[in-house]
Amino acid sequence: MSSKSIELYGVPWDEKSSFMRGCRDAPHKIWDAFNCESANRCSESGISLAKSEVLRFQGTLPLASGNQVVKEIETAAASIAAAGTLPIFLGGDHAITYPLIKGLHRSYPDLNILHFDAHPDLYDEIHGDRFSHGCPMARIMEEKLATRLVSVGIRTMTPHQRSQADLFGVEIVDMISLVSTPPLIFEGPLYVSLDLDVLDPAFAPGISHHEPGGLTTRELIRVIQNVQGAVVGADIVEYNPYRDIQNMTAMVAAKLMKELAAKMLSQP
Ligand code: MN
Ligand code: MN
After folding, report:
1. Cβ burial, residue 195 (10 Å; 0-12/13-18/19+)
2. Does the pLDDT value for residue 181 go beyond 90?
3. The pLDDT of residue 1 is above 50
4. % of residues, the chain, pLDDT over 70
5. β-bridge pairing 6-11 and 112-116
6. Which whole number is the average pLDDT over 100-112?
7. How far is 53 from 183, CA to CA, in rounded Å?
8. Residue 19 CB burial class (10 angstroms; 0-12, 13-18, ≥19)
9. CA of 51 to the centre of ligand 1 (A)
10. Which of 81, 90, 97, 99 is the one with CA 20 to 30 A from 110?
11. What does the alpha-carbon distance between residue 133 and residue 136 come to, in Å, rounded to a whole number?
């Protein structure tokens, strides 16, 4: 294996959730699930993530409250990317992704985004808030922070969000047209933003917005494993421990974290 390593950062911010809070307490729950004695710490391809030289939890970012958090997350992400590490950010709700991308963009001006979600997150604003967790992809595309945005698993398109997708050139792989998940090929650095509600709530009930008809855990893992591109960072967002059943969604998040980490470590 190469000398690359993964650094995990908790981003405990859920003030921008439009329906229900709780994601702020997710990062440590996912880390605990990863370390649970019921499972080992290898990816399906056999890459061990057990040693801290390979994968280490750097704790949660110190965040204040209010809109200044947007700047705090951006600044933290910029310095993490400048250090040349491979970060996985554990949210928090999906509002964290806009400032994360804004920070990473300084090191990766030609960044692509692969976005898994039930929702396109392209609202111009929600209840007057342009930093809502329903808006991050609109902000990212408006500011031209992504070369390509490919959104997979979408099943909640409104007319407004469809016109936003057209305006910004978002590539939508929605559930209604998804028969088998196509191989996704990216040129240049790739960031994976994984909203856990892309999964059917039968597989991941510990989220705030239950949207039936989503991907199976197996389908999502297969898409991640088959992505062609150099993944330089990722986030896993919207885990809400207060909606979970027996920590089962925390285990799903930890499993997806292992597969994302293996992907990042195994690429040339
Ligand atoms: Mn989302
Ligand atoms: Mn969502």
Report:
1. buried
2. no
3. no
4. 99
5. unpaired
6. 98
7. 31
8. exposed
9. 31
10. 90
11. 6
Ligand with the closest atom to the CA of 133: 1
In total, the chain counts a number of residues equal to 268
Contact 98, 139 (CB under 8 A): yes
Q: Cα dist. 246→138, 205, 250, 251 in Å?
A: 35, 10, 9, 10
Distance from residue 214's CA to the centre of ligand 1 (Å): 13
Mark the residues whose beta carbon lies below 5 A from ion ligand 1.
94, 117, 121, 195
CA pair distance 65, 105, nearest whole angstrom: 24
Q: What is the mean pLDDT of residues 67-73?
A: 97
Q: Which residue has the higher pLDDT, 2 or 79?
A: 79
HSE at residue 140, side-chain half, CA atoms within 13 A, is 39
- For 8-30, the pLDDT digits (tens) are 999 999 999 999 999 999 999 99
Q: How far apart are CA 262 and CA 131, in angstroms?
A: 31
Which residues on adjacent β-strands are paired with residue 91?
11
Cα(192) to centroid(ligand 2), Å:
14
- Cβ count within 10 A of residue 18: 16
Rg of the chain over all Cα atoms, to the nearest angstrom: 17
Residue 95 burial (10 A CB sphere; 0-12, 13-18, 19+): buried
Fill in the amino acid letter for 67.
N
Strand partners, 95: none
Q: 118 CA distance to ligand 2 centroid (A)?
A: 5
Say how far apart CA 198 and CA 178 lie, in whole Å: 13
